[in-house]
Amino acid sequence: xxxxxxxxxxxxxxxxxxxxxxxxxxxxxxxxxxxxxxxxxxxxxxxxxxxxxxxxxxxxxxxxxxxxxxxxxxxxxxxxxxxxxxxxxxxxxxxxxxxxxxxxxxxxxxxxxxxxxxxxxxxxxxxxxxxxxxxxxxxxxxxxxxxxxxxxxxxxxxxxxxxxxxxxxxxxxxxxxxxxxxxxxxxxxxxxxxxxxxxxxxxxxxxxxxxxxxxxxxxxxxxxxxxxxxxxxxxxxxxxxxxxxxxxxxxxxxxxxxxxxxxxxxxxxxxxxxxxxxxxxxxxxxxxxxxxxxxxxxxxxxxxxxxxxxxxxxxxxxx
Amino acid sequence: xxxxxxxxxxxxxxxxxxxxxxxxxxxxxxxxxxxxxxxxxxxxxxxxxxxxxxxxxxxxxxxxxxxxxxxxxxxxxxxxxxxxxxxxxxxxxxxxxxxxxxxxxxxxxxxxxxxxxxxxxxxxxxxxxxxxxxxxxxxxxxxxxxxxxxxxxxxxxxxxxxxxxxxxxxxxxxxxxxxxxxxxxxxxxxxxxxxxxxxxxxxxxxxxxxxxxxxxxxxxxxxxxxxxxxxxxxxxxxxxxxxxxxxxxxxxxxxxxxxxxxxxxxxxxxxxxxxxxxxxxxxxxxxxxxxxxxxxxxxxxxxxxxxxxxxxxxxxxxxxxxxxxxxxxxxxxxxxxxxxxxxxxxxxxxxxxxxxxxxxxxxxxxxxxxxxxxxxxxxxx
Lengths: 319, 381
What we know:
The complex is a heterodimer.
Chain A: H1 3-6, H2 13-22, H3 26-31, H4 36-51, H5 62-79, H6 81-98, H7 104-115, E1 119-122, E2 125-129, H8 130-137, E3 151-153, E4 156-160, H9 161-177, H10 188-206, H11 219-229, H12 236-248, H13 253-259, H14 268-281, H15 288-293
Antiparallel strand pairs in A: 1-2, 2-4, 3-4
Helix pairs in contact in A: 2-5, 4-5, 4-6, 4-10, 5-6, 5-10, 6-9, 7-9, 8-9, 13-14
Chain B: H1 3-19, E1 31-36, E2 42-46, H2 51-61, E3 65-73, E4 85-88, E5 90-95, E6 107-110, E7 116-117, E8 133-136, H3 141-160, E9 169-173, E10 178-183, H4 186-189, H5 193-203, E11 214-217, E12 220-223, H6 228-235, H7 244-254, E13 259-260, H8 263-280, H9 286-289, E14 295-297, E15 312-313, H10 323-326, E16 334-339, E17 346-348, E18 351-353, E19 361-365, H11 366-374, E20 378-380
Antiparallel strand pairs in B: 1-2, 1-3, 3-4, 3-14, 5-10, 6-7, 6-8, 9-10, 9-15, 11-12, 12-13, 16-19, 16-20, 17-18
């Protein structure tokens, strides 16, 4: 594979083969003085991931990218699911940035090479198979991503090129989260990196205010909160449902904004604006039927709730 | 176990002894099986090494319901977390109970005083105040026609929109009020749970944003339905009730003409399309489709609420398929019954039975008698 494309795909088979050829272990990646830049880059990646930014260095080469990715993933795996989710979000965003000016042919090459997708071009659109599309689109919020609003026929979906790129970035995210190595201990230098990241994380989390009891919330809301706690990226509808619900049970806007700090794409200004907007409009929490339609109903209430609203406990979360 | 159920069970066993060779599941050793017995127990997390031992198992246990998993596992008898899924057929479930106009012959009955009535099941018996009120369903011919219609809509959608070949669809009648359709193509068998949910929501017409189905050219609107579901919803608009002026505009738009619409007309048409979409969407239970730990009935096994066989079908069989002719347990020796609750008219093969009223005593061939016993409407004398 061409070097400029390898830069995009540090997790591809081609990248793995390169690492194999070089025969480097995690020990080498931790201590080899020649790989200092890779370690630095890994650290910047993780710091940016925690802070919700994207780190794209001015200069990269394929080996540097691949090694820094492996180091960052090992450290993230050591630190747990939360950091891994952040790294996945970071890599997905990085992919969007560095593919912005990629030609259609290159993108299709990437799709085939890294994700084994069967794709072809039709006019200005990229044509992908429905099952491949579904695996990626299910994690993207917004009406245009639902297949009912997409051009689909005979098992194929037509996508404008930018949406195709977005779809691939979701696959990048998923790839970071699969085949995660079991890392119970790290070589010293990487362990130090891990403690720095962990410290940064603690500082961030300590800004969060106390959360109230959630044991009385319905399972759909608990599920959204759990996902948020794990640092997963939530679709718009889930954020809306959570916000309206929490406002209804007496949480303050500040408490809700604090809850969203766990979101991988957290931006205080935007979050504050949106929570305030929902609060000032006085929106009601969605009905069960709507929650189902959005795919947010885990179906564990044991109620046939199509016409029922969400049942919730009145009172403030701290009571 | 109640005496009646013991007798019915002996007929089930006889069926499996005599017609067991029609039972076939491919590679049973990769599937988990689940039996529900006549005394209400559920036995699962077991498997059969081949079709022969499956048939022997059915004769031995003569279960009230017999299922196998839609998923294939490396170790089907292990606890859930350790089974190691290989792949899962994509399952669609159509249940006539949920369809409009169905359930008209259903009755609620009070187990304590024997009172009964039509309509919604009351929380407690209006006569004696007893809490033990249950609903007795009735398999209704009209409902089966409605269910067949939903099944045909589903097949059309899977073929036209998703490109799934008919040879990759396994259709079956459940033996009661529904149909199962399984997709066994490799691409769809490996779909994640989330992707299955997304797909099921497409089938039921959820998630539509009708505004995305129009293109705007200057001040004019053009219909540009993206998906098959959107196209069918629009085609179906020909049948709408609306003012002549709006009807004319809708008709122009369906023909693809750019049309001027006021914002009021636009929102009116959008809501008509949403309604139309619900009409054209196959009525499946989407929770079933997203769940890879589900089961489906073993083909040709018996349904414990009717005594009917769970038959495999092909798409071309659907129109002709008549569950009352093809499915009843093929045993006809006479059984004497006492009717507990009113029985509407019904048909088994070409023979018409009923209506019967409460307390009536009668002698019926086993297939009709078992149908009434399992429906809860009669007991053996």
